[in-house]
Amino acid sequence: MIQDKYQAAILFAGEKHKNQKMPGTDSNYLLHLSNVAMEVLLAYKEEQNFDVELAVQLALLHDTLEDTTTEFDELKAKFGDEVAQGVSALTKKKELSSKAEQMEDSLERINRLQKEVGIVKLADRITNLQEPPAYWTNEKKRSYRQEAERINEALERKNEFLNKRLEAKISDYEKYIG
Q1: H helix intervals, the chain
Q2: What residue spans define the domains of the chain?
Q3: Of residues 117 and 21, which shows the higher confidence score?
């Protein structure tokens, strides 16, 4: 059942991210993960044409490889190969020299997998397009907005509801750029 998979994934993520805060806030990082899962659930309410159980697990676990000490094999043993592969595709390869290369590589890997991985990437960026941290420069904000446009373009056929939602968030984000 989806509730059991949600509980297992959020418990695992909660332990792994227990000392992590949302950037620019004192909020626990689980807030971000649960918001990404919420976006996935709302998308499923609109378009029931994807595996919501897989997508919710990916949403809750999507940053474990990138931001914690979690290893691929640990994820695979606990949640299976499909989840581990999806989380791996959502993880930027730090050995690539630039953020742009990291993003393009991740988008390529996401597009090789099932649509649920792309759905989570869209939901993640929607969630991240909130008011940016006060210390971000206008250049950083512009770059982040452009990156969101690139994500929406690269994943335009994954979920129409989320693509439209991301378009609206990108447009709205302009108010944060001076």
Answers
A1: 2-16, 30-46, 52-61, 64-67, 72-79, 81-89, 99-112, 115-128, 138-154, 160-173
A2: 2-176
A3: 117
Asked whether the beta carbons of 68 and 22 are under 8 A apart, the reply is no
Burial (Cβ within 10 Å: 0-12, 13-18, ≥19) of residue 104: middle
Give dist(CA 131, CA 43) in Å, integer. 22
The token pair at 11 is 């418990």
Whether 24 shows a pLDDT value over 80: the answer reads no
Yes or no: say if 67 and 154 are a contact pair by the CB < 8 Å rule: no
In CATH, what is the architecture of 2-176?
Orthogonal Bundle (1.10)
Q: Is the pTM of this model over 0.70?
A: yes
User: What b/e sequence results for 58-87 when a residue is b if at least 16 CB atoms lie within 10 Å of its CB, and e otherwise?
Assistant: bbbbbbbbeebebeeeebbeebeebbbbbb
Query: What is the distance between the terminal CA atoms of the chain, rounded to a whole angstrom?
Result: 46
pLDDT band of 26, cuts 50, 70, 90: confident
The token duo for 9 is 């994934």
Percent of the chain beyond pLDDT 70? 100
Residue 108 burial (10 A CB sphere; 0-12, 13-18, 19+)? exposed
